[in-house]
Amino acid sequence: MRYFITIFLFISIALVSILGFRGSKSRKPPLEIFPDMDRQYKFLPQTANPHFSDGRADRPVVPGSVEFGSYVRDEFYNTGKIRGQFGHGFPSPIYVNREFMDLGQKKYNITCAVCHGQTGDGNGITKSYGMVATPTYHDDRMRKMTNGEIFDTISNGKNNMGAYKSKLSIKERWAVMTYLRALQRAHNPKPDDISSEKRMELGL
Ligand code: HEC
Questions:
Q1: Could you give all domains of the chain from N- to C-terminal order, each with its CATH number?
Q2: Rg of the chain on CA atoms, in Å
């Protein structure tokens, strides 16, 4: 009988601890042996925070932040490729206007000009420090290169050139690519790029 009670108790405890009070609802918080930082002081989204002058817990994005994780489902936009091939033209999320070109110019001058030079001739300051292999953008091969391939070079680098995908957002990389096109065009203008008055003035 003594054994029976011991075994019965043991089995009951084992059953209860394995199966627990399944299905029964309780309003009491569960017993917490390891709290795992479940409860902590924090400001939830869209609540008040007296620390800031506008009283809001949500803060605006710091200017100049590089976006990560804002994902657009567009292969061309994300990789410069269309079904695995470098694409021509622009992906649909890109809209080229003055502001976009200004962004490209700014980021180009910060990120690329040290090696490729402000005009893209490959004569940046690093040339005098031994980085002699930096190419110019102003030759036929570069002019014919697709937008997608240039975007890919900026994103992933090439040989001695590092990758810039951790420094520039996708949009910024497209903007730099577009500014690179503007540099190429400025270096190799067509008569149509000049206004008719200017053309008259130059006798073209
Ligand atoms: C540290 C110096 C350095 C910086 C900074 C740099 N590049 Fe380069 N870049 C190079 C070198 C060196 C090569 C030649 C790589 C090769 O083909 O061996 C190159 C090659 C290229 C090419 C040609 C790739 C090809 O297929 O031949 C492009 C386009 C280019 N860079 C664009 C950029 C842009 C845009 C930036 C700024 C986001 C940039 N680079 C920043 C050094 C640099």
A1: 118-188 (1.10.760)
A2: 31
How far does Cα 155 stand from its chain's mean position?
A: 10
Using CB distances shorter than 6 Å, the residues near ligand 1 are: 111-112, 114-116, 126, 131, 133-135, 150, 153-154, 158-161, 164, 176, 180
Which residue puts its alpha carbon closest to atom 35 of ligand 1? 154
Residues 151, 104: Cα–Cα separation, whole Å: 12
User: Would you place residue 191 in the very low, low, confident or very high pLDDT band (cuts 50, 70, 90)?
Assistant: confident
Closest CA to 59 of 67, 49, 69, 68: 49
pTM: predicted TM-score of the whole model, two decimal places: 0.72
Q: How far apart are CA 43 and CA 158, in angstroms?
A: 44
